[in-house]
Amino acid sequence: MTRFVVVGGGIVGLAVAHRLMIDRPGDQVTVLEKEAGWAAHQTGHNSGVIHAGVYYKPGSLKATLCKAGSASMVEFCREHGLAYDICGKLIVATDTEELPRLHDLHQRALANGLPARLIEGAEAAEYEPHVAAVAALHVSSTGIVDFGAVCRKLAELLTAGGADLRTGTEVTGVVTRPESVVVSTTAGEFVADVLINCAGLHADRISRLAGVPTPVRIVPFRGEYYELIPQRRDLVRGLIYPVPDPQFPFLGVHLTKMIDGSVHAGPNAVLATAREGYSWSRVSPRDVWDELSFRGLWALGRRHYRYGLTEVARSLSKKRFAASLARLVPELTATDIVRAGAGVRAQAIRPDGGLVDDFLIVEADRQVHVLNAPSPAATSSLEIARHIVSRLPVDAVR
């Protein structure tokens, strides 16, 4: 029997534990989560989109695992009776200057084997009557789901399968021995033959605790959302995205129908003052020091400071936020939106200031560390799990 300890109770950690239970029956699986419940951070604060995989470099882990993950996530929901909707997505060019980038995105989508069509503005209006588009890319395989509900189902399946699920259990130390890995926590020690770190916002810290040097630093970016008031939800039928500008690090604000019928708008992206900083008032001195002492963040700031200032201004001004949405749907005004909370993206950054574009999974003796798994990690989670478990040595036993 092999003893596996998975750190992190978001969707990636739970998916890894579930895959272990399927592929390695008879082994012991323990999941450690520091919060009182599952999906407390990135998983529980995202927009619920089942991504198709349009944006990612062909052949990358993101591209391959997102496409496969989209299909397996839908199959998981069907099998377990979870609500989902394959509503499709429009990526909208609002002026002719964006057309070359839209065409490039179309070519990337085709290279990734996705059902994507370039359409004129008139056809875009058939999908989204209130959109402003000179042209658009329609991606039919994009959908929506409640990833929190997916996590609850995974936890239920794990419990039924005999896994040991521990909430309220924060990792405080890791010692690797020749024959095992000893994980110290606020609830005692756990001995593992293999440690799998899926700690998201704290993944680099767990890696360092375990004595595995990480080439990157997790830097938290807060994404703030608004939602449309109920009387204006009819302005959006599905998902409406802008054409991304490759010189900027994030996609830009967009409109997303949620599985409960609400419509969320956002997110913007501002540097958070805590790894779990869901508002400007949440400040962690330790996390701020981590950010300010990291030369990679200063290099990123020099490269994108104008973009960053724009995002901060939009964070502080509802009127600016609404104006960004009105580029996509001109009828939207500041009176049509209300605050809807925020999420924090765990973005791995290299010392030279470059964002890590792909999923980053580092393997060491008796250890696996998932060091970069922001969006589309929720979509890809079942396939990230399959990828990790398939690479584990068969003879990793006590």
TrEMBL record:
Question: What's one GO-annotated cellular component?
Answer: cytoplasm
InterPro entries in UniProt: FAD-dep_OxRdtase, FAD/NAD-bd_sf
Superkingdom: Bacteria
Name the keywords, alphabetized: FAD, Flavoprotein, Oxidoreductase
Q: Answer yes or no on keyword Cell wall biogenesis/degradation.
A: no
Q: Pfam families, from UniProt? A: DAO (PF01266)
The segment(s) forming the FAD dependent oxidoreductase domain are 4-390
User: Which cofactors does the annotated protein need, by name?
Assistant: FAD
One Gene Ontology term of the molecular function aspect = (S)-2-hydroxyglutarate dehydrogenase activity
Q: What Gene3D superfamilies does the entry give?
A: D-Amino Acid Oxidase, subunit A, domain 2, FAD/NAD(P)-binding domain
Q: Which species expresses this protein natively? A: Micromonospora musae
Q: What family name appears in the similarity comment?
A: Belongs to the L2HGDH family.
Please give the name of this protein.
L-2-hydroxyglutarate oxidase
Q: Does the keyword DNA-binding apply?
A: no
Its lineage reads: Bacteria, Bacillati, Actinomycetota, Actinomycetes, Micromonosporales
Fetch the NCBIfam families from UniProt.
PRK11728.1
